[in-house]
Write a structure and sequence with these properties.
alpha/beta; Rossmann fold; 5-stranded parallel sheet
Length: 343
């Protein structure tokens, strides 16, 4: 008699298992949303349940369920091609772009500050800021999108030095960059303001107030990764043109067609991009093995974040069918074969 009930038992067990896995999945997404947004578990659970999958998670964290006039917030990390992106945006939307930072060079803008600014400046379509940190705020009547670029932290160090040497300013960084060679400048920065050169991008993504400078560890990396996961347009400076194509695709969907030109503004270094081995070889040659080694160790978390940003860019390009390398390679193959046969 028992064998007649076996199919029902198996079916019931399968249903129970699926229900349990669904519950665990919902709970995990709830935890990510709550930690990323620092909101109540009840509100986070409501958001998580509304999300059908990974793309929805980005919407939930950055925009919630609000629908309205689009607003882009670009989180501009110093020397991460933000000026180039702002130039392209300004050409596309004109006066709809606003640069918003406090008067203090080391100030911090809260999500409430951003929301208040948008409510006061209702024609704002895009905000570029050095002083806010993700996640983006919810703003009534606006559909908020967010963007960020992450850079190889070692390449970023040299770019900062080149920029400060060339800028016309009397701040300590500009003065020291003109007084010192690259090694002396790095030593000075590491002694006086190490955060500028040590896992700065992790710090940028995890800040919650001005001058906050806690020791960084893996928990901060997890928070920074969650912040990137919740953003709409994520990528790396090294793949800027691909990232710009992704930005154009996403922004055109919300703002109407936008054409973003790839022009490098405020670029401090010149020449073709170098490989990681070339960068390290030059770094050791100029700084010595000890200082170069310390710089590498002090940027391990940033290197992890850079790899995550690179992977997110690859994934989102594929999800939107933008710049598919394999498709493009196969598309070129017949043309190359035809050209070869004609010669």
């Amino acid at each position: 008699m028992l064998r007649h009930h076996i199919p029902q038992i198996v079916s019931h067990a399968g249903s129970t298992g699926r229900y349990f896995l669904s519950y665990v999945h919902t709970f995990a997404r709830t935890l990510v949303v709550a930690l990323s947004r620092f909101e109540s578990p009840r509100e986070a659970l409501r958001t998580a349940r509304q999300e059908p999958g990974r793309p929805g998670l980005a919407d939930g964290i950055a925009r919630g369920a609000l629908r309205g006039k689009p607003l882009l917030i670009h989180y501009h990390i110093f020397k991460n091609a933000g000026s180039s992106f702002e130039w392209a945006l300004e050409k596309a939307v004109g006066k709809g772009l606003q640069r918003y930072d406090s008067l203090s060079h080391d100030g911090f803008l809260t999500r409430s500050d951003l929301a208040a600014y948008v409510k006061k400046n209702v024609r704002t379509r895009i905000i570029a800021t050095h002083q806010a940190a993700p996640p983006a705020p919810r703003i009534k009547g606006r559909r908020v999108l967010s963007s960020i670029l992450i850079r190889d932290p070692i390449a970023r160090v040299r770019s900062i030095y080149a920029f400060e040497r060339s800028q016309v300013a009397d701040n300590p960084g500009a003065i020291k960059a003109k007084e010192l060679g690259f090694k002396g400048y790095v030593e000075w920065r590491m002694a006086v303001s190490p955060r500028m050169f040590c896992n700065f991008q992790i710090h940028f993504c995890c800040r919650d107030r001005a001058k906050a400078d806690p020791p960084l560890d893996r928990s901060h990396l997890d928070r920074a990764i969650a912040a990137l996961d919740g953003m709409d347009i994520v990528g790396t400076v090294e793949r800027y043109d691909e990232w710009l194509a992704l930005a154009q695709s996403i922004l055109s969907e919300h703002f109407g067609f936008i054409s973003l030109a790839s022009v490098r503004e405020n670029q401090s270094t010149s020449g073709k991009p170098q490989s990681e081995s070339e960068i390290k070889e030059r770094l050791v040659e100029e700084l010595g093995s000890d200082l170069a080694g310390e710089l590498l160790v002090q940027n391990e978390l940033d290197m992890c974040l850079h790899q995550v940003a690179d992977a997110l860019l690859t994934r989102r390009l594929a999800e939107r069918s933008v710049l598919i390398r394999l498709r493009d390679a196969y598309g070129r193959a017949p043309q190359a074969q035809a050209a070869a046969s004609e010669t």
